[in-house]
Amino acid sequence: MPDTTGLDIETMRAAAGEATGLLRLLAHEDRMLLLCQLSQAELCVGELEERLGIHQPSLSQQLGVLRREGLVETRREGKHIYYRIGDPRALQVLETLYGLFCKQNGDTR
Amino acid sequence: MPDTTGLDIETMRAAAGEATGLLRLLAHEDRMLLLCQLSQAELCVGELEERLGIHQPSLSQQLGVLRREGLVETRREGKHIYYRIGDPRALQVLETLYGLFCKQNGDTR
DNA sequence: CAGACAATATATATTTTTATATAATATTTT
DNA sequence: AAAATATTATATAAAAATATATATTGTCTG
Q: Could you tell me which residue ranges the HTH arsR-type domain spans (chains A, B) (predicted)?
């Protein structure tokens, strides 16, 4: 574990604020699933809807949250809008969580 | 990035539920700061209060949340109650966040 | 080009959850 | 019993989540 005790409280609070800001965005089941999908491939809304079984307006709303906060980026292709991860920090947290909650039980995928 | 696309949606949802459950607990500035302190040392409430400048009842309330959810464990010594981290998963997420939000700017501590 | 259709986004209202502050109470040691 | 420390209860405020309805944008057909 890294030693954070030397940091003054103001600095720590600032970092904690940033960190919790990111965590709040990730701490939502649908958004988490969206990001997991997007960590594997760029996908359009319809594909996400099909894979996750989330109703379109909910989907679009959560994608909107992620977009406004910079966690995902988009690209339009005809009537489809493709989403991809746009924040490497989110990706790294996702990776840690994968190790903790998905990889257990000898699944060495 | 690990490949999660092969997991069926039910399994993914279950894992996402667990993961977001943990994240919700971490996505709170005071709780985050508490856990950061406790990642370095076992501390009693008074010490936490002094280090973080959080009012005692707020502190106790958030410690209560963390305790009920198993993220921290306690030990009594006289009139003091010492807290320590009780969930290795929390520790690992904290470590990732430290790398992303605290270690930047050439701080090689 | 108008009109229809398909994909995605936004707005709004409602409910639920979470946070915050204060006050009151409990526990343990001396 | 008193002092120090910690916990719980309660009320209020603020923030998120959810569902439903509606709007926008682009494409294709006749």
A: 11-105
The amino acid sitting at A101 is F
Q: Pick one of 1.20.1560.10, 1.10.3210.10, 1.10.10.10, 3.40.50.1970 as the CATH number of B29-86.
A: 1.10.10.10
Q: What is the pLDDT of residues B67-81, one digit of tens each?
A: 999 999 999 888 889
Tell me which residue in B4, B53, B89 faces A102 most closely, judged by beta carbons. Answer: B4
- Window 33-62 of B: residues touching A by CB (8 A cutoff) are 33, 36-37, 39-41, 51-53
Q: What is the pLDDT of residues A59-78, one digit of tens each?
A: 999 999 999 999 999 999 99
**pTM of model > 0.85:** yes
Query: Residues near B77 by Cβ (< 8 Å), separated by ≥ 6?
Result: B44
Partner B contacted by A92 (CB < 8 A): yes
Q: What SS3 class is residue A73?
A: strand
Domain spans, chain A: 29-86
